[in-house]
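Hi Prof. W.,

I finally got the Putative serine/threonine protein kinase prediction working! I wasn't sure whether to trim anything, so I left the full sequence exactly as given:
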Amino acid sequence: MDHLTPQDPTSIGEYRLLGLLGEGGMGRVYLARSGSGRTVAVKVVHGEFAQLPEFRRRFALEVDAARRVGGTWTAPVLDADTGAQTPWVATGYVPGPDLHTVVARDYGPLPEHSVRVLANRLAQALGAIHGAGLIHRDLKPSNVLVTVDGPRVIDFGIARALETVTGDGLRTRTGMVVGSPGFMSPEQVRGLKLTPASDVFCLGSVLAYVATGRQPFGTADSGAHALLFRVAEEEPDLDGVPEGILGLVRECLAKDPAARPTPEQVAARTVTERGGGPWLPGEVLEQLGRHAARLLDLDHPQAQAPVPVPRPAVTPTPTAVDPPSSPPPGFGPPPTTTAPSAKPAPRRRHRTAVLGAVALVVSGVVVSVAHPWEGGNGEEKETPNSVPQAFLGAWEGEIKGMDGGLARIEITKGVGDEPIARTYTSNARNLCVRNSAMVAPGTATQSSGPEKLTLGQGLARESVEQGTCADLPEHTLEKRSDGKLNWATKDGTYTAVLSKATSGDAPVPKAFLGTWKDKTVPYDRQVTFRQGPFGGDVVRWIITDSAHCEWSATLVSAKDKQLSHGPVTLDAAKSDASCEKSWESATYTSVGADKLRMRGLRGTAQGSGAPTYLNRTDR
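And this is what came out:
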């Protein structure tokens, strides 16, 4: 959270402002407290929108409808003045991170129980929103806040005030559209009239993301038009979604809105027993507790007298931005250019029409991404720790004294005692993932010697094989003159020289993607690589001989011509009982356009001395 500046008001209505949570295309968002002591998020509209009569009219209608939304799992609209010189709306403040932050930064994919509870609560929230006559239109992980007792859906309905109606499509006056490409419905992509079923499709995308750490239709790395086409035309990638909820997620993602379940049906199918324990893993609950505790320190000791609300400065017309590659804000529904045909068009023409609609979205027709309340999702935006720029990013190297052992450390700017480092260590039969905070939050040491960053105990959050990972001792990163880092634990267990490494949501080199087969054996032995984040299951082995066996493995390293995964674990639900439970980590090297060399950390993935060569089968 940022401090107020002299240009910011100190109060709005009865609410005393405590700080600036953020700013987006629609306005500024402040953390505030009412006279009775309730903490709220006050969203103040930008002056350029306040001057538009049509915007004011729709804003008033949407706020009025949003006030009627009840239920436990939404952030309520508490107060508003849509007739003020600068319109504003106050919503309940939810002291928790958004779902995208939890999955992408703090923890990773959530277990099946958590996803089931999430599905139930979000379905109830959608039922309340639809019951008030609203459609959310932008349900995505960053619009779901996470608390100890359950999720809260935010920003429902109000963002539509940005839009002006053009035929059956919706496009903003400023050239922006509302929506995020990886979490839109096919109807939004085509610019069709939306129904509550559109939100159910978005719910399916959110659940798939939370269960796997991946967007079900991929990222926009290859272009937003390609992503939107996949949403409209192709089947989702649901590999890794737990079997117990896979069918429900698949139904939510049906292309035909009529084939999707209603929110009420989703809620009924995901009921969990009361008293069944916390809905989130313990590590996430600990972070939520620290997050909520910091809220107590936000108030200023002295009250400030209310002053009139000044008109915010007019925001310049947005300019073009690069399409996002991760779940936060993205493109929205394109305008409909022609009325729907009475008869279904032939398949080829249908695909062309979809491509045409997508082209409108990513061409000059849409010049920006609408994210109405950037930073206004209820999560405080505190000043990050002072992590030196030289340490930020991902680093990889071989662990000394551990034959074939790999270390990967991802450093981000955290807040206070939040973790800033995620450490992966792997050897032949073991993969450990741990999170660490700075020893002294907000500081890094630099004396006359090399610059150092000291990290506290690395708390083990997952392991392969299960239960084999202990917490990592305090460890230090030291900058070298060649741009690399020396890494060592305090007790000397781990030491390595780390080099800058690949990061992002799509690190698997394109040359590896697809299916490869070992043609030297008389039975079917193949491996498939798909795109996914570090720490995600991107490798799938299938061997069919006297038994059918399937295994998955976690990505731990990726370079232009080399990829490594941790120990391979059996997918018991898809395999025969006689299959081997696990086997060792392996590294794959590209040795030609259609050939890979595979070597396990003890020779090959199944123990012989020579490497195995794999040939591509999907070209």
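The two ends are 51 Å apart (CA to CA). Does that look reasonable to you?

Thanks,
D.
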